[in-house]
Amino acid sequence: MNLDFRNVIIIGGGISAHTAALYTARASLQPLILSGDNPDQLSLTTLVENFPGFPEGIQGPNLVDNAKKQAQKFGAEYKNAQVSSVKKIPNGFEIQTSENEMFRARTLIISTGASARMTGIPGESNFLGRGLSTCAVCDAALYRNKNTVVIGGGDAAMEESMALYKFAKKVTIVHRRDEFKASQIMQDRVLKLTDKISVMWNTAPIEVKGEKFVNGLTVKDVNTGKETLIPTDGVFLAIGHIPNTKFLSGLVELTEEGFIKANGVKTSQPGIFAAGDVMDPRYKQAITSAGTGCQAALEAEWYLEKMHAEGKY
Ligand SMILES: Cc1cc2nc3c(=O)[nH]c(=O)nc-3n(C[C@H](O)[C@H](O)[C@H](O)COP(=O)(O)OP(=O)(O)OC[C@H]3O[C@@H](n4cnc5c(N)ncnc54)[C@H](O)[C@@H]3O)c2cc1C
Question: CATH code for 2-115+241-309?
Fold first, then answer.
């Protein structure tokens, strides 16, 4: 148990956490980063082509490893630990891990990301990154002149379909109901793109098929039970994201979907800042996560300066 107050503890292990670590370490705040058991999102992908500074692209795992090494070079301290709860205490916060370790910090940066909601159908996990994607904005350009399927019916599915429309030969939206949940304006935009986009209503995905890469999706008509194989080069899941915020219970305000509500990167709890996908249901990109990681670090630094000026430490 180490109950000395740290200046800043960063919870998370993705690109937003490493960026916050880099900035706070360079500001001599000696950050401690508590990274959980699961891999971050960039470690699950291959070539990232839209992170500035890498004209040939960079492998996702290399991008995060480099960012971590860069932060460590300036003294950021990493510990493998899954945070199970956070409690407000006078002049700071107490953090408990699933191994029953305890830490205290004056400021916190929450960078715990979000996980794409999966359908759980057979084949899905085997083909993740090999024709099965959870991010059309990231991967659409790889599907130029190819056949694609989008699973979902909300705003995210409409956005994914429009991102694919620019590149793909064909986009088939598979939706289990007879109407979309997406906002009317988004539906209208998508449904008028009939040259490439079609919808299979009342249809549920059953199995992702393929060999090395995806080559088909089996679907079922939910009314008749009839199964059909859709030949496709790519399957895009757009059924939402689950933000990793359970451990925060009641400490900061969350949206209905569980994302951290933030004003810039400030949460409803003074001293707690948020960065990356955990507070961003809209952009969900590596560069925006790095950007908010930087902002959260600077806000934490300024918050500490104010605490110090007020004689709180
Ligand atoms: C397959 C795929 C491909 C992608 N391709 C691109 C792309 O080409 N370009 C692009 O810009 N974006 C891409 N993205 C999106 C990008 O990866 C994310 O926007 C970005 O990685 C989010 O970073 P983050 O730091 O917010 O969170 P994450 O990467 O989600 O990392 C969160 C980390 O926090 C840890 N954590 C969670 N809970 C706890 C806890 N309680 N205690 C301790 N640690 C915890 C997790 O284990 C994880 O390591 C892709 C995403 C995926 C899934």
Answer: 3.50.50.60
Q: Which residues line ligand 1 (CB under 6 A)?
A: 11-17, 34-36, 38-42, 44-45, 48, 50, 82-83, 111-114, 116, 129, 134-135, 138, 244, 247, 276-278, 284-287, 289
Q: Is 135 noted as a catalytic residue in this protein?
A: yes
Domain ranges across the chain = 2-115+241-309, 118-237
Q: What share of the chain is helix, strand, coil (3-state, %, to 5)?
A: 30, 30, 40
Mean pLDDT of the chain: 95
Ligand 1, residues 19, 37, 42, 242: which to mutate, most atoms within 8 A of Cβ? 42
Any idea which architecture 118-237 has in CATH? Answer: 3-Layer(bba) Sandwich (3.50)
Report pTM: 0.83
Q: Tell which one of 22, 86, 112 to mutate to probe ligand 1, the residue whose CB is within 8 A of the most ligand atoms.
A: 112
Residue percentage of the chain with pLDDT more than 70: 99
pLDDT at 1 over 60: no
Rounded mean pLDDT of 204-213? 97
pLDDT digits (tens, 9 = 90+) for 4-53: 899 999 999 999 999 999 999 999 999 999 999 888 989 877 788 899 99
Beta strands in 98-213 (DSSP E): 102-110, 114-116, 132-133, 147-151, 170-174, 197-200, 203-210
Residue 295 DSSP one-character state: H
Q: Is 294 part of the annotated catalytic residue set?
A: no
Beta bridge partners of 5: 104
